[in-house]
Design a protein that fits this description.
Chain lengths: ~300, ~350
């Protein structure tokens, strides 16, 4: 940082190193460093603000009724989001059921079979592109595909939409984690005469499992808060429902409905719901990060 | 397909190896180790091939999903495609009652909000990335990048909630009047300021795409070899000159790619924008004016869309959004890949 100006004389240019030049360069250095620090603080500010308000506004409204009651009729006090919490759980289990096996299998293909091939590259590229498809587009396609066929909104449709959104993340992390498994371990198994499919299942996947679990949890946490795809698939429900072929309540949907509604009581519940949702996501992400950093394979980037 | 349910503990010893599904069931009367080993080898090839085929099928399902989305969106929007053709994207009308639809106001809203978001997010994200890779003391590096990535983990609807109750009043009472007083003469900050509108949507979008851009930029800058930095420093560069010459110049393609990935996210972001943009199909120069984006009009009107043409028009907007984000993401991915070849790219 404290560079001597004498050292910076350019080749072939008989220019005397000037004092002002050094001052200018050092000043630029400090200004940019300051700006970078300022930018970091500015970025952390909204995070702090959001977390502060979530706790400040949400914690006051959290009570037992929130977790055990279904929403009260409009205009009445009280009520909770029990149906939304359970509904979210059901949709997420369905999503994991659809998304995780396909995602892991595709990751296995990329890492173990099609790594360098054209097809492998194409799959990898498509997965990355699929990751960027807006969630609302996923919502209307699953609406067009499932809901119109079934003729009603359903938990199943919501699960499919979220499951598809999980696939790219699971695939890419599985591939990356399998790539870190040393070849010697695979060769040892193969050398014992273990068939390749068995080697992949019991040796490669097992060794990489902490990282793969990380990927699954990250995908899970990502879709847990998704609202847009559920608007036209699960639709939401003010009443208790656990049927897979019926509209079902979900936490993000309920937050959206309550936040945009006109009643203070609803706003209160929306903040509490958001606090619960964010706690769920933060806890899973944090646990995963700690778990991944402690494991042999570094999962977090 | 289910890979979690594994019998056996560590490395599978030959006797622990179960028969593949295709093979006849082994007699459990304690076959010798060697015999089961030999059985295993004979049936292995068929099992191997079917396993590989299954994995390939799952991998190809990713293609199928993208293809499926595309086909289904075209099928469901054919009414509107047939009725308006290409003009759909240049027409300003949006009148569900008389069945007159055009997407221009939403294209305008999407472009302006995304542009505003990029203008705010890119310098900040670059600053964060520079700070994290070059300036930050090592012990702080992990926690700070973790915190910025927490921003990415907050769901869109929670951003929306926060924006509706905290950011909107702030914009209405403090930021808006200030902008009107200082920059009102430009014409961008005119008209009634309700707090909701294009500017607020742009700000919330900026907050949402920041972590994506900054974490990717950080990955890209980390991929620059240290010898570049050392060379610049050895020539007597200050730290900033080292960053500019040695790091930024080498990673500019990747950084552009990261910015485009952020743009892709901003174009398709739905819930938070829907909650604060005001939802009004209108083109207005003022950034205080309410607007609508491609994504927010779908979210706002899809469930109320009565009539096939109305629904079809909304799905055509979805189709446009799908194609645009695919193109933007594809280009961005290629750019990022060109720089961080082999390095993991984790965008949640």
């Amino acid at each position: 940082m404290s560079t001597q100006p004498i050292a910076s004389q350019p080749l072939g240019l008989p220019r005397k190193p000037s004092r002002t030049n050094a001052v200018r360069r050092t000043a630029a250095n400090y200004i940019v460093s300051g700006l970078a620090i300022l930018a970091t603080l500015l970025v952390l500010a909204p995070l702090a603000a959001i977390l502060f308000y979530l706790v400040y506004k949400g914690a006051r409204s959290l009570n037992l009724a929130f977790f055990t009651h279904v929403p009260a009729p409009v205009g009445e006090e009280g009520g909770g989001m029990a149906n939304a919490i359970v509904g979210s759980g059901i949709i997420l289990i369905l999503a994991s059921f659809f998304g995780i096996p396909i995602g892991i299998a595709a990751g296995v293909y990329l890492a173990e079979f099609g790594g360098g091939k054209m097809l492998g590259n194409a799959v990898r590229f498509t997965a990355d592109v699929l990751n960027g498809v807006p969630s609302i587009v996923m919502g209307i396609s699953i609406y067009s595909l499932v809901v119109i066929q079934q003729k009603h909104f359903s938990a199943l449709a919501g699960g499919i939409a979220l499951g598809i959104m999980m696939i790219p993340t699971v695939t890419r992390t599985t591939e990356e984690m399998l790539a870190t498994v040393p070849h010697a371990i695979r060769e040892a198994a193969l050398g014992l005469g273990v068939p390749k499919w068995r080697t992949i299942l019991s040796v490669s996947l097992r060794t990489a499992s902490p990282g793969i679990i990380t990927g699954c949890m990250l995908a899970f946490a990502r879709v847990a808060g998704e609202t847009a795809p559920l608007l036209f698939t699960a639709l939401g429900n003010q009443f208790w429902s656990v049927k897979l072929n019926q509209p079902i309540a979900a936490l993000p949907l309920q937050i959206f409905a309550y936040a945009t509604g006109p009643y203070d009581e609803w706003h209160r519940l929306a903040w509490a719901g958001a606090l619960v949702l964010i706690a769920l996501i933060m806890v899973s992400v944090t646990l995963v990060r700690i778990y991944a950093n402690r494991g042999v394979l570094k999962g977090g980037s | 397909m289910t890979t979690e349910r594994e019998p056996g503990s560590l490395l599978p010893m030959p006797p622990a190896i179960s028969q593949p599904a295709a093979a006849p069931p082994p007699d459990d009367a304690a076959p010798s180790v060697i015999r089961s080993f030999l059985n295993q080898r004979g049936s292995g090839r068929a099992a191997d091939n079917s396993f590989a085929a299954l994995m390939l099928l799952c991998a190809c399902s990713i293609f199928l999903i993208v293809l499926f989305i595309f086909v289904i969106l075209i099928l469901r929007s054919h009414l509107s495609l047939a009725q308006f053709g290409w003009k759909f994207f240049t027409r300003q009308a949006w009148d569900p009652v008389s069945g007159d639809f055009g997407a221009l106001p939403f294209i305008y809203g999407t472009l302006v909000t995304s542009l505003l978001a990029l203008l705010m997010a890119v310098p900040l994200a670059l600053g964060v990335a520079i700070f994290l890779t070059e300036l930050c003391p090592r012990p702080l590096r992990g926690p700070i990048s973790f915190l910025t990535e927490l921003l990415a983990a907050i769901p869109s609807v929670v951003y929306g909630l926060w924006a509706v109750f905290i950011l909107v009043p702030l914009m209405r009472d403090v930021v808006g009047p200030f902008l009107y007083k200082t920059l009102g003469w430009t014409g961008f900050f005119e008209g009634s300021n309700f707090g909701v509108g294009i500017l607020t949507a742009g700000i919330i979008l900026a907050i949402m795409i920041l972590p994506i851009i900054s974490s990717l930029t950080r990955d890209i800058m980390t991929a620059v070899p240290n010898s570049q930095r050392e060379a610049a420093l050895a020539l007597g560069a200050t730290k900033w000159e080292m960053i500019r010459i040695g790091v930024l110049r080498n990673s500019r393609i990747g950084i552009v790619g990261a910015v485009m990935l952020g743009l892709g996210r901003a174009l398709g972001e739905t819930m938070a924008v829907t909650m604060v943009i005001g939802n009004h199909a209108e083109i207005n120069k003022s950034l205080f004016a309410p607007g609508n984006t491609l994504a927010s009009v779908i979210a706002g009107e899809f469930s109320e869309a009565t009539g096939d043409l109305y629904l079809s028009a909304l799905i055509e907007i979805g189709l446009a959004l799908f194609l645009v984000t695919i193109v933007v993401n594809a280009i961005a991915r290629l750019m990022v890949w060109a720089v961080t070849r082999g390095a993991p790219s984790r965008v949640a």
